[in-house]
Amino acid sequence: MKVRFEQKICDPTQLAARVAELPRPIVFTNGVFDILHRGHATYLAQARALGASLVVAANSDASVKRLGKGDDRPINNEGDRMAVLAALESVSLVTVFTDDTPLNTILQVKPDILVKGGDWPIEKMVGAKEVITWGGQVHSIPFEFERSTTATLNKIRQAGPGA
Q1: Within 10 Å of residue 24's Cβ, how many Cβ atoms?
Q2: Tally of domains within the chain
Q3: For residue 160, is it within any domain?
Q4: What is the pTM of this model?
Q5: Domain that holds residue 91
Q6: What is the CATH number of the domain that holds 128?
Q7: pLDDT tens, residue order, the chain (163 aa)
Q8: What is the residue range of the signal peptide feature (predicted)?
């Protein structure tokens, strides 16, 4: 039996139909979201506050590997990462993308608002030009909590076995 939040997980082939059911304005973001932390949760809540619905596209396991984050990444597989994202109150819909960038997913969703974290200047955001072209907004949300999955993993690795 699926738990209620898992209904928010959307196969990419069903994305257009599921997005059509969401209230607008729709906010879109994407990322790996490997080990969810306070920075992620705060960022996603702030993104949702910009609109009526928040669609999150998670990198597929294969696309995470291509990002070069390390041989052992992602720590959590895409299904688990999407489930944890779906469990968040701020998230309306979660999907996965397999390409190197989320551009095709952005074009499918056609969000009113595109957001990324504060380490992404608007001019470098994939899909920013397209969203602006159709009259949407693009935001870079400053980090409120300096957290990073990579930094957390490095801390764990430095502690070593039995620490």
Answers
A1: 12
A2: 1
A3: no
A4: 0.89
A5: 4-147
A6: 3.40.50.620
A7: 678 999 999 999 999 999 999 999 999 999 999 988 888 999 999 999 999 999 999 999 999 989 877 788 899 999 999 999 999 999 999 999 999 999 999 999 999 999 998 888 899 999 999 999 999 999 999 876 566 666 666 666 677 666 5
A8: none
